[in-house]
């Protein structure tokens, strides 16, 4: 997760993310206890209560610092369980309005999360769900770049042209097409730093999921993490292989939330 320290940051506090930067990830599940047990075993996370205004939920922490959020789905809500990335904003209301004007949908908020900040959850014109986070006391993932933390987000969608323009307009991203024959792939950047990717896969988009974001979590050893994951009840969708970013595997947790494990070189 790319960060940029602002002028109002104070020593010892997490850096304030530049607007448009992925700064947080969250997961809504049916079985809170089982989910916590799974991610504690996989990433070494511990947990503490989240903001009461957001409903039943916890924050995952490493070394006492926030990493991700996990919330409880109502029993009658049968939604796909998925990790959702949040993009930093200086004004969640203004960003949500921009998303609506550009063909997106805002399904939640903007709403206050107490002293932590302000958030909204929406979907882009192709249907991929994302979050907007206007941080106050809580600025996002506080310990990036170590095993057990989110390090990259990639959108799998039908095609990149229209969707990339949406994120460029709403969040101020800069687009950089990946030069590779037959590959529809765009990198999104903030202040010259790559922060996320968009991969157009056409009809290969999973019908049960539709276009969706995939979060990459850093691990020290992908193959060792896969052994732990399967022992904890997770599933391997694509085995580990070496790529440009490192050794990566696509997996799911026991409730079906898809994510990727990444061992960086």
TrEMBL record:
Pfam families: Glyoxalase_6 (PF18029)
Name of the protein this chain belongs to: VOC domain-containing protein
UniProt-listed InterPro entries: Anthracycline_SecMetBiosynth, Glyas_Bleomycin-R_OHBP_Dase, Glyoxalase_6, VOC_core
Species of provenance: Streptomyces glaucescens
VOC domain residues: 21-135, 149-264
